[in-house]
Design a protein that fits this description.
Radius of gyration: 22 Å
Oligomer: single chain
Largest sheet: none
Helix content: over 70%
Number of helices: 16
CATH superfamily of the largest domain: MFS general substrate transporter like domains
Order of helices and strands: HHHHHHHHHHHHHHHH
CATH class of the largest domain: Mainly Alpha
CATH topology of the largest domain: Growth Hormone, Chain: A
Number of strands: 0
Length: about 450
């Protein structure tokens, strides 16, 4: 196991890394929401365009393992985080300029937007992957679940705060104002992140740099990580669970409008209720991690399995809602779904932090990158598959209600599969306290032949 460098982070250090995560979220949120609306409403462009651009930024995140490998070789994460933030800021401001340019020169603006969304995806990959590795390296095991909850809740707060404040500053709307607001948000977020990162990693590089004097090529390092049964199982779990998690996003509000006759305002509030449930689930795991709820709630694996199973149950509740109709307590059902999603997500992130340094030394960045890439691809596919499956089911069945219920039932099956996968991952590491020593793995300094990388991931 790689030695941890520097002193463990206290809660103030966790909050500082949370500020960095907030900065990443603040830069991204306007590119995936505000620019989407401007392209479709103000510029009357096809809705497919922003959908493809957002999908492109997810697709680029398959480079996350390479970003993590780069920091593994150098032994430091902070330069990669700062570099990723700079690229992300450049891409976000450029995307706003590209959107403004589409009003006068659509083709040129779209070409620039493609380039900028590639930069956004690359920046998120470099900064986000290595921020998680740094968090895993500097936070002791007994604080990882509450630390993950704090960091992600700060990110969600940053998303909401940025959207509200930027929305106020965008009125009265003009293309120039759009670019100015985006530049101001990105500039402020970048400065906050730089201040938060100051000396948080420490100056010691650590013994893992000396453990393998001649690091292998990236493809071989990735193959070595994929050959680790635990890392491979966790990658598949992340993909399946996040696919089920993301597939519901774009069809929940249309379902409420179709089956229950809710207005756009009411379905928007329903989405907000779901996000409130997500935060509740995160807080629940954080309290368990702090020992407030007692030891019997302390297994990360238990939270992951339970969260997936309750998510499946809540999705089956939505199937029942389609059958019962307006008498079904839809709001409570959706809140339960959000809480279960939040609980399993934080448990998965905390498990990710725990597993990142277990296995072959100097591969933490590659592992975290592989899992981040699985999540990004799942998110990119989830929205497409969820909406596409509902359209296909409606065409085959002829009933929109039955189509939505079919998709919800399929997502429930995915969550059950994810729970089965989670049950096979590692030991039941306690959330609140750990006395079990971390797994020790002998270091192999010789070059090993790479396994085939063409298998499904």
């Amino acid at each position: 196991m790689a030695a941890r460098t520097g002193a463990d982070l206290g809660w103030l250090g966790v909050l500082r890394l949370g500020l960095v995560q907030m900065a990443i979220g603040a830069m991204v949120v306007l590119t995936t929401s505000t620019l989407n609306r401007v392209m479709v409403v103000e510029l009357a462009l096809p809705a497919l365009l922003p959908g493809l651009l957002v999908g492109l930024h997810y697709l680029v995140q398959v480079t996350r393992p390479r970003m993590g490998f780069g920091s593994d070789v150098g032994g430091r994460r902070t330069p990669w985080i700062i570099g990723g933030l700079a690229v992300l800021a450049l891409g976000a401001v450029g995307a706003a300029a590209a959107t403004a340019w589409m009003g006068t020169s659509p083709v040129a603006g779209i070409v620039l937007a493609v380039i900028c969304f590639l930069l956004i995806g690359g920046g998120v990959s470099a900064a986000g992957t290595n921020l998680l590795v740094l968090l895993a390296k500097r936070v002791p095991e007994n604080r990882r679940a509450p630390a993950a909850s704090i960091v992600w809740m700060m990110m969600i707060f940053g998303l909401a705060f940025t959207a509200v404040m930027a929305g106020k500053m965008l009125d009265p709307f003009s293309p120039a104002r759009l670019v100015a607001v985006m530049a101001g948000v990105c500039g402020l977020a970048f400065v906050v992140a730089l201040l938060a990162l100051h000396r948080v990693e420490g100056h010691e590089v650590g013994t893992e740099i000396q453990a393998e004097p001649a690091p292998p090529p990236f493809r071989q390092a990735l193959a070595q990580v994929w050959a680790e049964p635990e890392a491979r199982r966790f990658t598949i779990f992340i993909f399946v669970s996040m696919l089920a998690f993301s597939a519901q996003d774009l069809i929940l509000e249309p379902f409420a409008g179709t089956v229950f006759g809710w207005t756009p305002g009411q379905t928007t509030q329903l989405s907000g209720l779901q996000h409130g449930g997500v935060l509740t689930g995160m807080i629940l795991v954080a309290l368990a991690g702090a020992g407030v709820l007692g030891r019997r709630f302390g297994s990360l694996r238990g939270w992951a399995v339970g969260g997936c199973l309750v998510s499946a149950l809540a999705l089956l509740g939505l199937v029942a809602a389609g059958v019962v109709g307006k008498a079904w307590p839809l709001a409570a059902n959706v809140f339960l779904l959000g809480a279960a999603n939040g609980a399993f997500s934080i448990a998965a992130i905390a498990s990710m932090m725990r597993l990142a340094h277990e296995g072959r030394q100097r591969r933490a960045g590659v592992r975290m990158g592989l899992w981040g890439a699985a999540q990004a691809v799942a998110f990119g596919l989830g929205g497409v598959l969820g909406t596409g499956a509902s359209d296909l089911a409606r065409w085959l069945i002829g009933s929109p209600v039955a189509a939505y219920c079919t998709v919800f039932a399929g997502e429930a099956l995915l969550f059950v599969l994810a729970a089965c996968l989670a049950a096979r991952i590692g030991g039941a590491a306690p959330v609140s306290h750990s006395t079990r020593p971390r797994a020790q793995h002998p270091e192999h300094t010789r070059q090993e032949p790479a396994v085939a990388l063409g298998q499904p991931r």
